[in-house]
Amino acid sequence: MGVIKNKSTYVKPGNNIQSLDDGESQGNTDNVGVLYEDPGSLAIVLGTMFVNAIEYSILMPTVWHYTQSLGGTKLYLGIVLAAFSLGRLLCLLPVGVWSDARSIKEVFLVTMTLQVIGNLLYGLAGHFKILGFILAGRALCGLGASNSSLSNIYISRSVAPKKQTMLFSIQSGIMLFGNVLGPALNLGLVHLDVKLGIFELNENTAAGYFMFFLNLIFMVLLAYRFRDPASQSLHSTGSSDEKKDEKWLSHLISSGSWWSVHVAFTNGFLVSSLETALTPISKDEYNFGSLQNSFMFAGIALVALISVVTTIKLDKHYSGRRISLIGISIMCISLVAIVAVSFRKYLPLWGLGGFGGSLFFGLAMTGNTAHSIYSILLKGKPKGFFLSFKMIIMSIGRVIGPLVAGIALHSGHHKFFFIIVAVIGMSLPFTLPCVWDKISSAELYHQEDSQTNETDEAQPLLSKEAE
Fold first, then answer.
1. What is the DSSP string of 123-138?
2. What gap in Å lies between CA 229 and CA 39, rounded to an integer?
3. Count of C-beta atoms within a 10 Å radius of residue 430
4. Left (φ > 0), alpha (ψ -120 to 50) or beta: where does 302 sit?
5. What is the pLDDT of residues 101-125, one digit of tens each?
6. Is the CB of residue 320 less than 8 Å from the CB of residue 399?
7. How many C-beta atoms surround the C-beta of residue 200 within 10 A?
8. How far apart are CA 157 and CA 124, in angstroms?
9. What is the pLDDT of residues 5-40, one digit of tens each?
10. Phi-psi map region of 229: left, alpha, beta (phi>0 left; psi -120 to 50 alpha)
11. How far apart are CA 205 and CA 59, in angstroms?
12. Which residues pair with residue 9 across a beta bridge?
């Protein structure tokens, strides 16, 4: 892109760089971006993330029953869900590198093709009675779901930095709404009983075919309407000398950014392990079917959505580290309560629902706040690389979580499973004090930096108070 001598620039669709403010030193492109370069393309990107969110919630209520109907065990269920996360993990870094070398559009189309094929295999497993089709289908969908990193990359390249936090929050809300909508759609799909040749639409297979068509539609939109950001270098931050002088791992440790990575792993493990365990436990304890599980997952997503709204409200009065402390406190109280309740001979529904709901509330609050903290602590650094690294660590948690849940449930050790979940979750309050001061310093710096911008612009999540 050449030498940047402006404090803040934006790129219009015509690729013309125009100055908004003067005075930035050479080589510092941290404020480079656009308010909204191409609203249509941005809408398609957010819509693609919305589709991915629907896929999560629409499949989870029925995947255990589907697997069981073809002879699968609880351990196999864990392997199926872990295969999705493993496929996603393996492709996150290649997808990021690929999008740097080629184009976001090209990567989107290839990854969505994998999702289309994967969902088709998932549906065909019911007709051919091949359990391996479920595993292969979810693995391919996982490879394709690595395109979730492209959304963050697109926003970082095509949206002004002072608007990015707001866009990330909007993206989070859209995905949570997809999680809520998925079970509602599933309520209609579970009643289907249609056969068209090898395509059998029933409560087990309908979700796969539905996602097959939905992904196909967005592939067409991407092919004919989506445009790549005008500048491939908009995501670069900091001077090349600075990048060479400081190793990424050293910065991760010295800046305190490692704590947000720890939160990412913890959230990935807890969410994936619990979502794997919920359907078998609800079947064994309460004889829940696909319909009841759909309501259960809709409730979980609704709780997470309420948590996001609450976090936004708290952001007006408290700093990011205090909001994190509130979320962790709610999460830890819930974990202790769940472990205590699990030692009863019969696991009461009120215990699983009440304490489980508050756990997801705390997880969502902590995760969203930690993401904003991470962005602030990385000011002046190549965020594309660090965001990809954080997503890889979260994906590792999502691979381990289903495997631990599958092994524990297969062996009948429900109590042992809840203890492992509690130990992993309870590590967060012990690590937050280690970065407490560094988060405060970052918030103070971010607040002072934000005051140089227009006062009517949306403030980032954590630019509130210096304690």
1. HHHHHHT-HHHHHHHH
2. 11
3. 8
4. alpha
5. 888 999 999 999 999 999 999 999 9
6. no
7. 19
8. 39
9. 333 333 333 333 333 333 333 333 343 444 556 888
10. beta
11. 9
12. 19, 32
